Amino acid sequence: DADVTQTPRNRITKTGKRIMLECSQTKGHDRMYWYRQDPGLGLRLIYYSFDVKDINKGEISDGYSVSRQAQAKFSLSLESAIPNQTALYFCATSEGLAGLETQYFGPGTRLLVL
Amino acid sequence: LAKTTQPISMDSYEGQEVNITCSHNNIATNDYITWYQQFPSQGPRFIIQGYKTKVTNEVASLFIPADRKSSTLSLPRVSLSDTAVYYCLVVASGGYQKVTFGIGTKLQVIP
Fold it and tell me: Is A40 on the interface with B (CB under 8 A)?
């Protein structure tokens, strides 16, 4: 969905390096999410944010941090990358109104930690 | 948080109707059933959502029996481009509930 963009799309880094994955959205949604996907494990929630001042840990937040710079931007950082953080990372957004949580996903960032 | 169970994989020939069943025995009163589709190397995409009986859109139909303990996603006359992973989720209306995607059902359409 072009309304949710992620940069970079692919990244190779070395163990111990700090890396930031960025997500931007033009949907005007308040809620944003970061997931990682590993083969055979489905999608797992890392962090989510309901608005600019709200940050919440998901299932697997250890080793990650996030920053919600604006309504449209939500960044995921790996402070010191390790090989088992090699995965496909997705950003998603949702409206967060008094209704249902339909999420819109970005194209993903494929990260390889050597 | 209602847990869902769905088959890990399914194969179908082109042109056939495909039905993927999901069980959610502990679904709550304010929960909706939602299905997403994910193509390789892409993010999941919402395809359909329902509360009870039947919902149909341009992509699929969703059948939900009266007890709501299961649901069936129906894809009419599948083509090779329908090869994807399909996730069944139970989502609460209002507020926020941690959404669990699970591993989904990998549908392989065979020519």
Answer: yes
